[in-house]
Amino acid sequence: MSIESEYLSVTAEELDEIINDITKLKPAITKQRNDQDRLFTQCCDELHILLTGEVTPMEKLGRAELSGTLANAVAGGNLIDGSEEIDGPFLGRVRYLTAEQVKETVRELDTLTFEELAEQNAVEGIDEEDLAEEFAAFQSFYNLAAANDNAVLAFFTD
After folding, report:
1. DSSP string, 3-55
2. Number of structural domains in the chain
3. What CA–CA distances, in Å, run from 67 to 47, 81, 83?
4. I want to staple 33 with a disulfide (CB 3.0 to 4.6 A). Which of 15, 37, 106, 114 is the partner?
5. How would you classify the pairing of strands 4-10 and 151-157?
């Protein structure tokens, strides 16, 4: 069964406020946003396999810092201290990528095509067309966040 995750594009200022004051996290997550600034996916683990070729236990995706730009793009790289104590629509801790890390992610994503990834990394349990759509939405979300010089919050949902 796949893990659901949500990604939010936030300004550097919003991210700094959250990091410095954990009580700003829930309002930032529940804030009304444009559809372009929010991505929800029901196939987080499949995207991780597609992008990295690694079958990573979901516990590791949810709790540990992963190595590699693309792995962290899926799981969200840096942990927000105290986020596990906030009552919200997420499981465990909320993670983030800075605006610079988002740009680094886009530089790597821009070198990849779905067809090449699918050929290299077999992903089971999902229709290839559905996965291609999820990959395109993921790539588009990160491209827009980078173009706007935004950071990204990432969290798993139930």
Report:
1. PEEEEEEE-HHHHHHHHH-GGGHHHHHHS---GGGEEEES-HHHHHHHHHS--
2. 1
3. 16, 19, 21
4. 37
5. antiparallel
Cβ pair 95, 63 in contact under 8 A: no
List the 151-157 sheet strands across, edge first: 38-41, 4-10, 151-157, 91-97, 78-79
pLDDT tens string 38-84: 888 888 888 888 998 887 655 555 555 566 888 888 888 888 888 77
Range of the domain at 121: 4-157
Q: Residue 130 half-sphere exposure, CB side, CA atoms within 13 Å?
A: 10
Average pLDDT score over the chain: 85
Q: Read off the CATH number of the domain in which 45 is found.
A: 3.40.1760.10
Exposure of 148 in the CB half-sphere (CA atoms within 13 A): 17
Sequence-distant (6+) residues with CB within 8 A of 46 are 2, 123, 125, 126, 131, 134
Helix, strand, coil shares of the chain, percent, nearest 5, are 55, 15, 30
Q: Looking at residue 59, what is its pLDDT?
A: 55
Instruction: Report whether 46 contacts 17 (CB < 8 A).
Output: no
